[in-house]
Recover the amino acids of this structure.
């Protein structure tokens, strides 16, 4: 992306035709003058108006006919989103009107904005740092309350503040260490090594916590991953369709119908869940189905919650085999398991005491408590066992409540920073590697100049997150994923 701040740019900031009003943004050194050429105001011109004012005007087409009546919001530099002179034209949300207004702005001297160019200019003009700019896209894309809260906090600078604090402390110490090099013959020590060692321990722990938060942050942003696992024809696809309220997955009596994962998201009580329908578990020599089962195991390992499907109509031996296989794949230290006893519409739940006792005892062997869940009581760390009928919908509301309760902490107000961006995680990992090298080197008497270089590398990686150090290539990769008009 070529940076051309001398240009005046324009773009619709809303999607035309989806509401009553559309907003068109214009930003740049000639924004006010160009808008004056397109919009005629009854009292005074836009160029002569103060910032933070709104003027009423009309737009005339090439034939002099009134195209639309509009309101123009005026922002003068540096008190605008981009830090430049800007206007926002509110017109009627007709695709024809928006297109015509854009053509008039082009003819008056503006050019079409690149994806994310308004936010890019805000970054370049010092209105926000790079982490905050990326959070703008996350706020726009947020699909639930938890994701919005995290993105909004990052946009307001919470994450950036932590990073800048760490960089500041490291910069102070590395400056003192480099000062020592200028007085190497006198063998003086300006940087307190005990303080440095203590600070390194604190920063490594802090960076490590931020890295570890990515799993939770990513789950909130993209949906808590929930894998639906079980033998073939236990009702996994039917369950997915029942949860979504639509026929998303193919349902068939033929074993092995689902050969690849099917993923859909669903918002339950303010938390976004990403449900993954997986291939049924069974012994098979069919090549494609074997690949699907391998993917099932991979999705189970990546999921935060596993819904283990048990078919009550199956014989006890095959049921035990399926339950055992699912339990063995669950890492109870970081994953939750919910056992679903399916097909209660054709099989009496109360006649399966032996199956239930086997499930409970299998979990107890793993040190896991379980309970038959028939209401929305607090679950603690127990594994829920729920009787359902995916076909009729019986028990599905209980399952929804259990899922929502399991992630209740995601909606709680918290000052804890969560990382949600893969680029940030990589930079933090590189910074931690550099800091660990410093810590290890100091323990073995690493020369001051080499330790200072490793600290400089850590400072660089932390700075790359907030944009203290950035390249046109990095900026291009970030902002090209924004929507036009933002």
């Amino acid at each position: 992306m070529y940076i051309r701040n001398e240009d005046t740019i324009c773009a619709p900031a809303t999607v035309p035709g989806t509401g009553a009003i559309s907003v068109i943004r214009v930003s740049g050194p000639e924004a006010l003058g160009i808008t004056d050429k397109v919009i005629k105001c009854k009292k005074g011109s836009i160029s002569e108006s103060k910032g933070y004012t709104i003027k009423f005007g009309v737009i005339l087409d090439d034939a002099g006919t009134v195209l639309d009546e509009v309101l123009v919001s005026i922002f003068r530099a540096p008190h605008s989103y981009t830090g430049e002179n800007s206007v926002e034209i509110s017109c009627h949300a007709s695709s024809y009107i928006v297109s015509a207004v854009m053509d008039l702005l082009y003819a008056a001297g503006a050019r079409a904005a690149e994806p994310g160019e308004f936010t890019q200019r805000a970054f370049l003009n010092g209105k926000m740092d790079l982490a905050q700019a990326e959070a703008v896209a996350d706020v726009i894309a947020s699909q639930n309350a938890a994701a919005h809260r995290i993105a909004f906090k990052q946009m307001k600078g919470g994450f950036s503040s932590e990073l800048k604090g760490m960089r500041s402390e490291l910069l102070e110490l590395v400056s003192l260490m480099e000062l020592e090099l200028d007085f190497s013959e006198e063998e003086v020590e300006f940087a307190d090594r005990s303080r440095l060692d203590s600070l390194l321990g604190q920063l490594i722990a802090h960076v490590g916590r931020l890295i570890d938060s990515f799993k939770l942050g990513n789950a909130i942003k993209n949906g808590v991953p929930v894998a639906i696992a079980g033998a073939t024809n236990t009702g996994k696809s039917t369950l997915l369709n029942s949860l979504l309220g639509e026929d998303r997955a193919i349902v068939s009596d033929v074993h092995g119908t689902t050969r690849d994962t099917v993923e859909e998201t669903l918002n339950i009580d303010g938390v976004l869940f990403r449900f993954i329908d997986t291939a049924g578990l069974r012994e098979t020599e069919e090549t494609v189905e074997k690949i699907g089962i391998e993917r099932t195991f991979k999705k189970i390992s990546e999921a935060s919650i596993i819904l283990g499907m048990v078919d009550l109509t199956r014989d006890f031996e095959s049921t035990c085999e399926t339950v055992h296989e699912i339990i063995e794949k669950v890492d109870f230290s970081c994953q939750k398991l919910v056992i679903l006893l399916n097909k209660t519409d054709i099989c009496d739940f109360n006649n399966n005491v032996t199956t239930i006792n086997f499930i409970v005892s299998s979990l107890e062997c793993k040190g896991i408590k379980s309970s038959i869940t028939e209401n929305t009581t607090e679950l603690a760390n127990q594994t829920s066992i729920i009787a359902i009928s995916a076909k009729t919908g019986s028990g599905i509301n209980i399952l929804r409540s259990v899922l929502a309760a399991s992630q209740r902490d995601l909606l709680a107000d918290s000052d804890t920073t969560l990382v949600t961006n893969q680029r940030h995680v990589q930079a933090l990992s590189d910074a931690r590697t550099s800091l660990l090298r410093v810590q290890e080197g100091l323990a073995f008497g690493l020369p001051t100049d080499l330790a200072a270089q490793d600290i400089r590398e850590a400072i660089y990686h932390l700075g790359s997150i907030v944009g203290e150090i950035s390249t046109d290539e990095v900026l291009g990769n970030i902002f090209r994923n924004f929507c036009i008009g933002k």
Observations:
- The two ends are 15 Å apart (CA to CA).
